[in-house]
Amino acid sequence: MELTQKTVVVAGATGMQGRAVTHHLLRDGWQVRALTRDPHGAQAMALAQAGAQVVRARMEDVDSLTAAAEGAWGLFSVQPTVGSPGTAPDFAAEDEVRWGVNVAEAAHAAGIGHFVFTSVAEADRHLEEKLPVNLVSKWHIEQHIAALGLPATVLRPVSFMENFTGAYALRNGNLSTGLAPEVPQQIMAVDDVGAVAALAFSRPTEWIGREVSLAGDELTPVQIAEAIGRALGRPLPYVQIPIDAIRSLSEDFAYANEWLNTLGYRADIPATRTIHPAAMDFGTWLERTGASRIAAFLDSVRTAGQDA
What pLDDT was estimated at residue 89? Predict the structure, then answer.
């Protein structure tokens, strides 16, 4: 049987990564079982229209995950991290780990032939240095996958370019984060993670057992703001949020920014392009989808301000 005649389950299918993986798998001819807690939501309905089989399952419910994975050959797993859109206000790193463990346990119980997990770059440095909590949680999930002996591929992307498309970074007409303006930051387009995941499923002999870091570009926050400004045709200054201001809200988030400003990601960008030659740099991502998304967000904020 051709690999693409088999079914790949996508856990977290309605999130950014899940949607990207689903679309790449469908484009490549796979049968896709898209898992979601709300099969009637807009994103789930869009996946169904694209050709996916949408199945209700919840990451906190192992039985629902196992039932949804039965009979499938592959499974893609990604979990939200603390502060991700759509998570409950009290969603914690412990919840992320539990959800990731649940998906791995379900894959093991269902006899999945190839398990692809999206972790995060540098998670494997956990035993060498103090890492931000969102990296440590991914490392714990990785360890459980290994302990189960799953035939697995671990993808470790850096920060996403999509982080610069909404309220996380766009405030008061500025690009504004806790990142130091002069420190280069590694970034990756979510769609390229989807492409690499689909590639891994298509070449199981080559990819099972691999742990791969992924990055598409490296720019300072000032350069990112300048690139967005050029794409939009309007200035977008960069303003750093003081770390102490962030610390007053969250010590963990403050440390994550300090870590990015000092140690940070060290992925091999040329190696990523060897794996996936079409991996986008920031300018290409802006041209294809990023600039239009940023413009739409800024326009929505402006309209809301006028209506207030």
Answer: 83
